[in-house]
Amino acid sequence: MPLAEHLRELRDRLLRAVLAIVLATIVAAFFYDQLLDLLTGPYLDAVERLQAAGHEVDAKLTFSGIADPFTFAIKISLVAGIVASSPIWLYQIWSFVVPALHRNERKWTLLFSAIAGPLFIIGFVTGYYVLPKAIEILISFTPDGVSNFNTLPDYLSFVLRILLVFGVAFEIPLFVILLNAMGAVSAKQLAGARAWIVIATFIFAAMATPSTDPITMLFLAVPMTVLFGIAEGIAWLVDRRRARDRAASEFGRYDDDEMSEITIERDPEDERPSRLDDD
């Protein structure tokens, strides 16, 4: 396709994606109360737990400006609209990119998409599950006699940061599998670096989670470690299948760094004396 056709197709697909997000945002606005309850539920649960445990905490979610309730309603509806319409705009991106891919590349991309989506959702749900405990520990540091008021926009940013960290962290083992499938990393190399990978996972979990409690870190680090173990097991299976395929081929008996035997058959006519030989 000419460049103008590519740009025209990109424009059309972007318009469809934006239209899907706008429509989903409008629909999400009608469910604002339910979305607000879903968002503030972990915070209210954390405050109730602290008060039930005997902590005299004065923690509330507030707005700091006259227009904040309106802008916050638009923001939370937009976030919900982006999430709800993700299958549509992801499909538009996929439809624009896939014609440029080879058949083998399409296969790996489809496999990545089929696994990446559920993994991200699992990480997202796990982050929401540990959110009340993380908020409870953070609010517990509030001194007696001091109120802890948080604006809803700041609280929304905090929640989204935790959920995105969990969602993206659960995708990392998938990238390890893809690197192994491309031959960039072998299962033997993963096994040799297993101890360092586990240490790096816990360090990443400690730095990525906004809260300072070990429980939130463990809720992120332990599933990531298990997923790394699964990724290493899949890498061993892929390497074994690759070794069997290499052994079954006609060049399987040669090592990768072994010099091949090259035989050159010379034509008898090439043995004719040159005119330079007469001199």
UniProtKB/TrEMBL annotation:
- Kindly list the places in or outside the cell where this protein is found, as annotated in its UniProt entry: Cell membrane; Membrane
One GO BP: intracellular protein transmembrane transport
Recorded topology in the membrane: Multi-pass membrane protein
| PROSITE patterns xrefs | TATC
Cell membrane listed as a keyword: yes
**Pfam family, any one:** TatC
Chain segments carrying region Disordered = 258-279
For this protein, the parts annotated as crossing the membrane are 14-32, 72-98, 110-131, 158-179, 191-209, 215-238
**GO annotations of cellular component type:** TAT protein transport complex
Q: Which keywords accompany this UniProt record?
A: Cell membrane, Membrane, Protein transport, Translocation, Transmembrane, Transmembrane helix, Transport
| Molecular function per GO | proton motive force dependent protein transmembrane transporter activity
Q: Where is the composition biased (Basic and acidic residues)?
A: 263-279
Looking at the keywords, is Transmembrane present? Answer: yes
Q: What is its main location?
A: membrane
What is this protein for, i.e. what is its function?
Answer: Part of the twin-arginine translocation (Tat) system that transports large folded proteins containing a characteristic twin-arginine motif in their signal peptide across membranes. Together with TatB, TatC is part of a receptor directly interacting with Tat signal peptides.
Quaternary arrangement and interactors, per the entry? The Tat system comprises two distinct complexes: a TatABC complex, containing multiple copies of TatA, TatB and TatC subunits, and a separate TatA complex, containing only TatA subunits. Substrates initially bind to the TatABC complex, which probably triggers association of the separate TatA complex to form the active translocon.
Family to which the UniProt record says this protein belongs: Belongs to the TatC family.
Q: What is this protein called?
A: Sec-independent protein translocase protein TatC
Species this protein is from: Mumia flava
Its taxonomic placement starts with:
Bacteria, Bacillati, Actinomycetota, Actinomycetes, Propionibacteriales
